[in-house]
Automatic annotation (TrEMBL):
Keywords: Amino-acid transport, ATP-binding, Nucleotide-binding, Transport. It comes from the Bacteria. GO terms for biological process: L-amino acid transport. This is ABC transporter ATP-binding protein. One of its GO terms (molecular function) is ATP binding. Belongs to the ABC transporter superfamily. Residues 6-234 form the ABC transporter domain. It comes from Hoeflea prorocentri. It holds the Pfam family ABC_tran.
């Protein structure tokens, strides 16, 4: 078995005086899509932000390909090959799609092959290339945010609730795009939408109240209805 791409061990994070994450241990295998599920306020975003160094872990270890990254600056963590697509997508509405993409490159230049791959994944981005990002629909903005994360080769992409507020038909397109992206990079996906998560995830961790409540394979969770009922009662959106 290959070594995990990312390992969290005993990670606790405080925001101001609040203890948000408690002793989080998590292993993300190399390759494929891996899911972190949990209800609103469970600590999913805080986990991703802690991995990126946007919140500092008070204690614990975060290793990326075996290297400790818990004390590194966010820019150095990104340079190691980790991209983060935040829930608010982090795109610049006043800039064009092209300008948004250019800002995500290291030197302002595009590699044609990567751009062609992105156009194939998200044709709308080619159509709206010279248009302002404000003119994109919610789904297209999400596509732009993901495209920015893969315009350079990445080892690991952290994506925070990409399906939030999107129509089912767009979510379906997103499944195909994620499968394609996962051929090149490992994806750690934060979700509340269990149907989307189970169609993509190889492994799953469930977080509740800042603590890991379950880890295992998605196949085992899908096969075990009793376990699902117990874990999904942690207020996931099972009806979607
Ligand atoms: N800047 C902040 N200041 C104080 N508390 C915060 C801050 N950001 C998050 N929290 C608290 O940390 C806890 C975890 O929040 P987090 O955003 O990680 O949850 P989440 O699982 O991502 O939820 P959601 O699905 O709503 O984004 C919540 O109780 C939240 O209120």
């Amino acid at each position: 078995m290959t070594a995990p791409v990312l390992e969290l061990e005993g990670v606790s994070t405080d925001i101001a005086q609040y203890h948000i994450l408690h002793d989080i241990s998590l292993s993300v295998p190399d390759g494929g899509v891996h899911v972190l599920l949990g209800r609103n306020g469970a600590g999913k975003t805080t986990t991703l932000r802690t991995i990126m160094g946007l919140w500092r872990a008070r204690q614990g270890s975060i290793r990326f390909r075996g290297d400790e990254i818990a004390t590194l600056h966010t820019s150095d963590i990104a340079r190691k090959g980790i991209a983060f697509v935040p829930e608010n997508m982090g795109i610049f509405g006043g800039l064009t799609v092209e300008e948004n993409m250019r800002l995500a490159t290291r030197d302002g230049r595009f590699e044609k092959q990567r751009l062609d791959r992105i156009y194939a994944l998200f044709p709308a981005l080619e159509t709206f290339w010279t248009k302002s990002a404000w003119s994109l629909s919610g789904g297209q903005k999400q596509m732009l945010a993901i495209a920015r994360a893969i315009i350079e080769p990445r080892d690991l992409i952290l994506i925070d609730e990409p399906t939030k507020g999107l129509a089912p038909s767009i979510i379906l397109n997103m499944v195909d795009a994620f499968r394609e992206i996962a051929r090149e990079a490992t994806i750690l996906l934060v979700e509340q939408n269990f149907l989307f998560a189970k169609s993509l995830g190889e492994t799953v961790a469930v977080i509740d109240d800042g603590r890991i409540a379950h880890t295992g394979t998605m196949a085992d969770l899908v096969a075990d209805t009793e376990l699902q009922t117990r874990l999904l009662s942690l207020s996931l959106e099972v009806s979607q």
